[in-house]
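Continuing from yesterday's entry. The apo prediction looked reasonable, so today I'm repeating it with TZD included to see how the binding region is handled. Same sequence as before; SMILES copied from the compound registry.
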Amino acid sequence: MPSVHSVSYSILRQQGLDIVFGNPGSNELPFLKDFPEDFRYVLGLHEGVVVGMADGYALASGKSVLVNLHAAAGTGNAMGALTNAWYSHSPLVITAGQQARSMIGVESMLANVDAPSLPRPLVKWSYEPSCPEDVPRALSQAIHMASLPARGPVYLSIPHDDWQCEVGEEASLLPPRDVHHAGAPSDTQIDALAEHLDQADNPVLVLGPEVDAERANALAIELAERLCMEVWIAPSASRCPFPNRHACFRGVLPAAISGISEQLAGHDLILVIGAPVFRYHQYAPGRYLPDGAHLIHVTSDAQEAARAPMGNALVGDIRAVLEALLPKLAQSDRTMPDPLPIPSPANSGEIGRLSPESVFDVLNDRVPDDVIYVKESTSTVTAFWQRVEMRHPGSYFFPAAGGLGFGLPAAVGVQLASPDRRVIAVIGDGSANYAISALWSAARYNVPVIFIILKNETYGALRWFSKMLDAESAPGIDVPGLDFCALARGYGVEANHVETRQKFEEALSQALDASCPMLIEVPTTTIEP
Ligand SMILES: Cc1ncc(Cn2c(C)c(CCOP(=O)(O)OP(=O)(O)O)sc2=O)c(N)n1
Ligand SMILES: [Ca+2]
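Holo prediction written out below.
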């Protein structure tokens, strides 16, 4: 009779989950025993790094990813990273080792008490099988739950004495299961959407991360050009779904209720595709919509559609909606928007410090055009979108819940999933500390990420927020005295400290020629977000 262990690895193999991001404890060793040759294990030294790497890998590859954590303590450490994976709809299959079944109730050491409750509400589904024989079926359910829309992380707690148990022959029906979503809209739905667009005098397109996740970028471009629409990126952008030098591109919407209405004033139809409505951030109350505007929301996430505070929504496969919609739309006779002006070259900064804008100018001039950026420096987001061109799908990743500690590990995961493209992580000196041990994983597996640390010695974004919230006297906003070169070398990553544009250009060129991870620490001036 096959074992839980052998059937579970068959399910993982046939469903394509052959890479495991993890950090083990004794509860996990019976799962990791006899680890198959055709599987890969990627160790993170902290569970926030483990989930961050897995999130980056899933975002870049579009594949479901297996995560293996240690009981409650490991799951707890992962929760910060899980906030990002939840809001980025990352299909992570998170497993956690549980104490032996007979020792859970007595709450022995390493017992994950009430395990399924621990990761909620940041998972789609959370379960601990009631008997060993159910583990393979539960693992199969977890895999399919993670990848069916709306995609997202799931959690499975598995007692360590289950793995060697025998299961019935029927379990062999699980590995080959092919479970797919068919979410095409009806003709009636598409005709109604096309009519709204045809009747609109000045429609505008707002695009979100799901457009990039579903590789619907080219369809979005075709729609914008067909109707000569201005295109905004939905607020709190975690991906880049539309080329930011395209004539229709207008920028990233502010993450503020009043700010969005002001920005979209004059449009009578707002078509939002692949984003929540909306991911507000700063509290700036006002009208949800500009006068005379109607909003239509297209998403695969029923929860996003249901919780929006206004507008109509169509829930389905966004690629299928765009593919069905485009043939229904005639070329508009509106004038195409003019492209935004390209910012003039930035000043370099001051003695000993570069301006972030000049760092971005150098990146934009020197890196391959299919580079992938992983960004986590909150105060420099606007300047980055203005100065760095992003034209290909999968070119930009930012923590989807703003949970810091995403950038360093996610960059490792993105690079593992994208061996043919260079990955550059642009990380603030505050953010870099939350998952700094990701540098060890980059060195351990020789993952050639270029880590750029923007060192303004403060939580720049909080400086701005403290002014907004009249809390400028708040303590705990400065982070002086950090030496990221020493930290990087301590984890096995080569590092350079540069203080001039020329030295940064030289260090960047050296890193681009290298086939190993490298870190560049750049003292920078502080800018307003
Ligand atoms: C896990 C976690 N802790 C704290 C914060 C709060 N926070 C913090 C601490 C920020 C400062 C980021 O500083 P940085 O150096 O990374 O980037 P900037 O200096 O460019 O803002 S932005 C922000 O929302 C957070 N978002 N996530
Ligand atoms: Ca900073």
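Comparison notes:
- The pocket of TZD (ligand 1) is lined by residues 80, 377-380, 402-405, 428-431, 434, 456, 458-462 (CB under 6 Å).
- The two ends are 61 Å apart (CA to CA).
Will overlay with the apo model tomorrow.
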